[in-house]
């Protein structure tokens, strides 16, 4: 008992430092209630597991914990890394008493732990300690995907080859991964199409759907019209997907009757599953499945473990699931990097003999066997590799590639060859910028200010001008105006790696508000304040990450205008009183995490003065690839960018 009290004391100290939360401590209390004589190792393991869940990790990896406790637990927190590193190392040393064997021995003997099915709160599998709920989600995902991997047909009709030929007449790519994606996705009820920005995921999807519709219509035994549903994790992502699908369909040379069967509007996953009020309990589940033949989810890297389990659990057994997304992006904010995990090994295209034969027979592509065989999921995973949006001259494309490959030297060399901002006018072909001189905090701040107040589209001036110059004088035009302001806001976005500190979103938003409104702290709500929802509000139908802008409506009242992402909604804008929005934060600067699923014409990525474990290659890559036309790197201290590129969490 004395030893238990000592553990709790240490935990209190960690809570005071902000390394653990009260919730983590409460979880330990819950474990103690169930097992009053729990050992210190079990209590620590419980607290650290709870801490990992807060950080978006699904389990506590005991092996990594033993090897690199600070890095594994991200203690101290990112914004205090520089100052608290030594103290944290000394505190973490107390965990050094435990080896992987002693952790496992203690957990194995505890009544709180089992190794699979059961009722214990904790589950140990190998070196991974899970909370039962998350272990269960993984089981559901695994079982539902495995069931869908079974081929649904052992051959494709000959009429399909002709259609494929028409859809993919010639290709600049060799092999043609888009064509391969189509033929593989026709084989089973599950497929993942992953690729960086502009690699043709949406284009491929529309062709695939056209083929699937033909196949269903031509089925001699049971011709049918497919019920196809399209979804994305957030409202913003759903709106972007709808836009991309509509564009891809406009460019697709197929019969109008087939096009009519392809949905142009995506809903959010919450809506697809039928979200109940204030909860993640959905109307659709295995007892009441969704009615669909094909479900497509874009921006799948944003799906967390719980949502993926809910989705798979609610799919009817015969429905086909197609996931689209960029596996190299950051994982979801909630626990679980499902897409990254499912796509492990996708680069190698490690197909087995049956898959290679299928590809050769139907796509006419003879791929070389990989050195080692990939997993069963790899057989239905296709990585698109050629960006059609960023050509070889595009700085954004080159930079994203170098970052993704962990090539810090190449990334630096691209940036040192950069355009700069003599008068904030980009050179004609350059689409990326960085401070040319040695970065310092002052230089970064002054460039950021210049950018932010820039009256053109490179900064927020353009957006502010839309508010003032385009204000309508009739109530009817208010929605149109709000849409215009929201679109203008998407032209530029400041992104930060961190939340706190002068280079985190809190500090940046404060400075940007002062620069733009030339007033130090004014009222919390003012016209032009962009806000991001920070917690799902099922009553208002606003989801974490949705962005709205405070505007005066036709009656002069300040309201927040949100784009209506419901595909069936008649009104394009929803006006919500600020009083009804307790969980929002200013969004001139947002975290890279929160920017997922969105794209902006110009992105300014701000890096802090010190590296910390959260500033990783995936984060930099995600930040860069949010930019459609131009990208600016603002390093407040030399070296952080390069170090981040060398830090890979995979
Ligand atoms: N095989 C191709 N040949 C030529 N152009 C293509 C090809 N595939 C896609 N494109 C073009 O590249 C652009 C990007 O394609 P698409 O929107 O399908 O990519 P994406 O991977 O879905 O992009 P995002 O990153 O926005 O999700 C579009 O203009 C599209 O017409």
TrEMBL record:
Cited InterPro entries: Coronavir_polyprotein_1ab, P-loop_NTPase, RecD, RecD_N, RecD_N_sf, UvrD-like_helicase_C
GO MF term set: exodeoxyribonuclease V activity
Family classification: Belongs to the RecD family.
Function per UniProt: A helicase/nuclease that prepares dsDNA breaks (DSB) for recombinational DNA repair. Binds to DSBs and unwinds DNA via a highly rapid and processive ATP-dependent bidirectional helicase activity. Unwinds dsDNA until it encounters a Chi (crossover hotspot instigator) sequence from the 3' direction. Cuts ssDNA a few nucleotides 3' to the Chi site. The properties and activities of the enzyme are changed at Chi. The Chi-altered holoenzyme produces a long 3'-ssDNA overhang and facilitates RecA-binding to the ssDNA for homologous DNA recombination and repair.
Subunit structure: Heterotrimer of RecB, RecC and RecD. All subunits contribute to DNA-binding.
RecBCD enzyme subunit RecD N-terminal domain boundaries: 17-130
Domain (UvrD-like helicase C-terminal): residue spans on this chain: 587-631
Enzyme Commission number(s): 5.6.2.3
KW Hydrolase (keyword) present: yes
Name recorded for this polypeptide: RecBCD enzyme subunit RecD
HAMAP family: RecD
Listed transmembrane segments: none
Enzyme class: isomerase
Keywords: ATP-binding, DNA damage, DNA repair, DNA-binding, Exonuclease, Helicase, Hydrolase, Isomerase, Nuclease, Nucleotide-binding
Record's catalysed reaction(s): ATP + H2O = ADP + phosphate + H(+)
Additional detail: In the RecBCD complex, RecB has a slow 3'-5' helicase, an exonuclease activity and loads RecA onto ssDNA, RecD has a fast 5'-3' helicase activity, while RecC stimulates the ATPase and processivity of the RecB helicase and contributes to recognition of the Chi site.
Sites where the protein binds ATP: 195-202
């Amino acid at each position: 008992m004395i030893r238990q009290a000592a553990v709790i004391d240490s935990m209190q100290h960690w809570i005071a430092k902000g390394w653990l939360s009260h919730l983590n401590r409460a979880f330990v209390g819950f474990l103690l209630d169930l097992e009053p004589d729990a050992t210190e190792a079990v209590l620590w393991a419980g607290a650290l597991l709870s801490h990992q869940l807060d950080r978006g990790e699904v389990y506590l990896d005991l092996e990594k914990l033993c090897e690199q406790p600070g890095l594994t637990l991200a203690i101290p927190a990112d914004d205090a890394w520089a100052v608290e590193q030594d103290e944290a190392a000394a505190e973490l040393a107390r965990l050094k008493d435990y080896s992987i064997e002693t952790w496992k021995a203690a957990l194995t003997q505890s009544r709180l732990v089992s190794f699979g099915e059961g009722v214990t709160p904790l589950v140990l599998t190998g070196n991974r300690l899970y909370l039962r709920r998350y272990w269960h989600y993984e089981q559901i995902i695994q079982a539902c995907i495995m069931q869908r991997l079974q081929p649904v047909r052992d051959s494709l009709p000959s009429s399909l080859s002709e259609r494929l030929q028409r859809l993919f007449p010639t290709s600049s790519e060799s092999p043609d991964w888009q064509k391969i994606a189509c033929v593989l996705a026709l084989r089973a009820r599950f497929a993942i199409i992953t690729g960086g920005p502009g690699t043709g995921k949406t284009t491929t999807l529309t062709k695939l759907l056209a083929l699937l519709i033909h196949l269903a219509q031509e089925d001699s035994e049971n011709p049918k019209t497919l019920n196809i549903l399209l979804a994305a994790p957030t409202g913003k992502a759903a709106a972007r997907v709808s836009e991309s699908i509509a564009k891809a369909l406009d460019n697709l040379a197929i019969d109008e009757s087939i096009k009519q069967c392809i949905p142009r509007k995506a809903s959010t996953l919450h809506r697809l599953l039928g979200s109940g009020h204030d909860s993640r309990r959905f109307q659709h589940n295995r007892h009441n499945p969704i009615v669909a033949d094909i479900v497509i989810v874009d921006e799948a890297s944003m799906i967390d473990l719980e949502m993926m389990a809910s989705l798979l659990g609610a799919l009817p057994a015969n429905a086909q699931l197609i996931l689209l997304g960029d596996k190299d992006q950051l994982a979801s904010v909630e626990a679980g990097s499902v897409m990254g995990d499912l796509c492990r090994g996708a680069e190698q295209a490690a197909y087995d003999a049956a898959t290679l034969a299928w590809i050769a027979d139907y796509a006419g592509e003879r791929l070389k066997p990989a050195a080692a065989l990939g997993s069963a999921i790899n057989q239905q995973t296709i990585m698109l590799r050629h960006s059609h949006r960023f050509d070889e001259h595009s700085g954004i494309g080159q930079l994203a590639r170098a970052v993704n490959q962990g090539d810090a030297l190449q990334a630096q060399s691209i940036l040192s060859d950069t355009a700069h901002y003599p008068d904030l006018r980009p050179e004609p072909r350059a689409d990326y910028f960085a401070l040319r001189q040695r970065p310092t905090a002052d230089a970064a701040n002054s460039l950021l200010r210049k950018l932010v107040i820039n009256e053109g589209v490179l900064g927020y001036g353009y957006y502010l001008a839309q508010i003032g110059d385009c204000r309508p004088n009739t109530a009817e035009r208010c929605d149109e105006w709000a849409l215009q302001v929201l679109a203008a806001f998407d032209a530029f976005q400041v992104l930060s790696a961190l939340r706190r500190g002068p280079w985190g979103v809190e500090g940046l938003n404060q400075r940007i508000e002062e620069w733009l409104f030339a007033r130090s702290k004014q009222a919390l709500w003012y016209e032009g304040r962009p806000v991001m929802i920070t917690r799902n509000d099922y009553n208002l139908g606003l989801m974490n990450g949705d962005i709205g802008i405070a505007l005066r409506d036709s009656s002069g009242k300040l309201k927040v205008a949100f784009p209506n992402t419901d595909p069936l909604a008649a009104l394009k804008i929803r006006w919500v009183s600020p009083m009804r929005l307790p969980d929002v934060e200013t969004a001139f600067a947002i975290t890279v995490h929160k920017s997922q699923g969105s794209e902006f014409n110009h992105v300014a990525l701000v890096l802090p003065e010190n590296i910390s474990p959260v500033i990783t290659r995936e984060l930099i890559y995600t930040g860069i690839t949010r930019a459609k036309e131009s990208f600016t790197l603002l390093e407040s201290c030399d070296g952080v960018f390069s170090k981040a590129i060398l830090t890979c969490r995979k």
